[in-house]
Amino acid sequence: MSFMKNKKLIIGIVIVVVLALIIVSNMTKKGGSSKTVQTEKVKRERIVATVSGSAKIQPEVQVKISAEVSGKIVKLGVKEGDYVHAGDFLAQLNPEAYQAAVEQSKSNLDYAKAGYEKAKSEYERARKLIKKDGIAESELEIAKASYEQAKAQVEQSSAALKQAKENLSKTTLYSPMDGTISQLNKKVGEMAMGSQFTLDVIMIVADLSSMQAEIEIDENDIISVTLNDTARIMVDAYPDTVFKGIVTEISNSGVTAGAGTQEEVTNFLVKTRMLQKPERLRPGMSATVDVVTDSRDSALVIPIQCVTLRAPVSEDKDDADKKSEPGTNSKEKERVVFIVKDDIAHQVRVKTGISSDTHWEILSGVAEDDVVVSGSYRVISKELKDGQKVEIDNQAKKFIAE
Q1: Selected residue with higher pLDDT from 212 and 318
Q2: What is the pLDDT of residues 314-354, one digit of tens each?
Q3: Nearest CA to 380 among 300, 303, 305?
Q4: 336: nearest Cα among 305, 315, 357
Q5: First-to-final CA distance of the chain
Q6: What does the alpha-carbon distance between residue 151 and residue 11 come to, in Å, rounded to a whole number?
Q7: Is CATH 2.40.30.170 correct for 51-59+208-297?
Q8: Backbone phi and psi for residue 168, each to the nearest 5 degrees, phi listed first
Q9: 220-253 residues labelled b (16+ CB within 10 A) or e (exposed)
Q10: What is the pTM of this model?
Q11: What is the Cα–Cα distance from 290 to 232, expressed in whole angstroms?
Q12: What is the pLDDT of residues 4-14, one digit of tens each?
């Protein structure tokens, strides 16, 4: 009887040991060795989505003053920084050649008028003679042609005189608007090259009372920007101040840099009016602009590094093995987070909303006060498995990409 009792006891111990080994084996297969992680709680707070870009400060209204005719600058009526009114004198080009052209055109017009009067008299005489059969029909035609030619010559000379006078008037430059001479590129004695095809800027008149930041926004972000979006403008010269702004213009066409190369980028110009302007702000200053494209109050948010792309968790091992066989397509990756419950990490699919520089809005997949893995980057993106045991170490939160 004692032998039978010992035998049953031994069998019972073996069964317990086997069951323990099976449980440990399953836990090992499912989770592997534990990982040290950092965590954050899911919380509700305001989140603001922004699109950022480097910018240059420019006046909203400015006019580049250039000459429509060529000539040497013989007088400047302003210096850089001067305030001018519309119609004020700005610069004088040497008018001598254009004055001579006017005189020559006047002389040509007088000569043409004299020829016209003579041709007109001969034509009238010929018309009278033909009625009396005093001349042939061909002579009348010749007189008429001479008259028409002389008349055209007068019109041509009049147009030439008008153009010469206009060119002469263009040697004197006046301000087209009230504003400040924000840039003066020429000095007395230098040439101003007047051309319809190239712009030789002599000076710039700008309204410095209304300034804007001109930003270049990447083509992937421009679809989020709309007119009247608010903006935060950080001017490099004022490092401790954030100025308010509003989007006033979005370009319809992008500008591509590095076309045909791996560095090819396409940006769109966005203009934001500065609602606040410091006194010493100057055109050309560098700035950074954050355009606020969307915001949510009391949104479920988690740190941005908590979200990663992973293949979906397989419902059963056979399915997982099948997907890993050559010639089969693996499941498409999805956005997931790892929720920690009872020291076990669970991979959960999430739907994200807007994002700020530091946080994601979570629309589904987690609840307020859930604990999610927030570090490290390598553990979240590659190493951590669904169902794996974790050790939480939040003594020093360092989200460093290992």
Answers
A1: 212
A2: 754 444 444 444 444 456 899 999 999 999 999 999 999 99
A3: 305
A4: 305
A5: 65
A6: 132
A7: yes
A8: -65, -40
A9: ebbeebeeebbbbbbbeeeeeeebebbbeeeeee
A10: 0.68
A11: 5
A12: 555 556 666 65
Closest CA to 250 of 231, 274, 226, 224: 226
The helix/strand/coil state of 33 is coil
Query: For the CA atoms of 102, 106, 112, 118, what is the dihedral angle to 10 degrees?
Result: 180
The string of DSSP letters for 195-220 reads: -SSS--EEEEEE-TTSEEEEEEEETT
Distance, in Å, from the CA atom of 47 to the CA atom of 358, rounded to the nearest integer, reads: 9
Q: Which of 194-198, 256-260, 266-270 has the lowest mean pLDDT?
A: 194-198
Rounded Cα–Cα distance for residues 122 and 314 (Å): 108
Name the CATH code of domain 65-94+171-207 (choices 2.60.40.10, 2.40.50.100, 3.30.240.20, 1.10.230.10): 2.40.50.100
Q: Where in the chain is CATH 2.40.50.100? A: 65-94+171-207
Q: Parallel, antiparallel, or unpaired for β 265-274 and 243-250?
A: antiparallel
The size of the chain, in residues, is 402
> Among 3.40.50.300, 1.10.287.470, 1.10.357.10, 1.10.10.10, what is the CATH number of 96-170?
1.10.287.470
- Find tokens 């992937």 and name the residue: 220
Q: Looking at this protein, which amino acid is placed at residue 31? A: G
Q: Where are the alpha helices (DSSP H) in 302-391?
A: 317-324, 377-378
pLDDT of residue 401: 41
